[in-house]
Structure formats: structure tokens, C-alpha cells
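Example record used in the benchmark description.
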Amino acid sequence: MFNALQEAEIAYAEDEVPIGSVVVFENKIIGRGHNQTLQLNDPTAHAEILAITAAANYLKSPNLENCEIYISSEPCVMCAGAILNSKIKKVFFGCFQPKYGAAGSIYNLLDDNKYNYKISLYSGIYAEESKKLLQSFFQKKRINLN
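Model output (C-alpha cells):
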């Protein structure tokens, strides 16, 4: 999870929303990502999507069922969908996202029991650090607007 938080810090330094993610296979990071929506002019360039794409390319397979994903904050609906489609079965994340979260805050897509496999969901890991990074980022944005 610490590596996901480091990716979030990279996003912060690049003036992107500070969310980071890593995908792990057999105790090895095979995919990394941090938000790059502004840098790539791509609304789908979320940390989770980029990490999942890198992991799928590494394994040369869209099926990541033997992988785990670590995310600095709760995934949104789009990223929860990508996690479901990649068949990742273990999801770890830091803080909840009360405005966009799809793993317990607004929706609970990952723990819906409507799928043919069970996803194990773990939250609260480095939650305070992730939350503080997000708060600092948005505070900085508000100051710059005034």
C-alpha cells in the first residue's frame, strides 16, 4: 500500500488529483499508476486504470484473477468496473471517497454479490495519509482560485 501512496504523491507533484495504485502478482508489483487525466487529456486516465493496463500488458492477459490491487483511496464507478472486468479478487484501499466512491461510500459495486466470483475488499490502510494528501491538494486548488 505504501507504493500506492507514493504514486499518489507523484500525482500531487504533477498537479493531478493525488490518487495512486499498484497491482501485485506473486508479491511483485507488475502495474503502477497515478492519476494523469490532465497530463494525458484523458478522463479515463485514473490511477487504477493505468495500473490495471500495465499489469495486463505484463501478464499478456486481460484476466488478473491472481492479482491484488492497492489504491490510495476508494475507487470510483469507472475504476470499480475495470477491477470487476479484470477479475481482480483482492482490493485494498486507503480513505473513502464520500462524493465518488463505489466501494462503500455512494455505491458498493465491489461487494454486491451479483458476480460469479467474490471480491475481498479491505479499506482504511494508510487512510489518514491518503486523506491528508487529498485535502492538501484541494485546499491548494481553492487558494489558487481566490
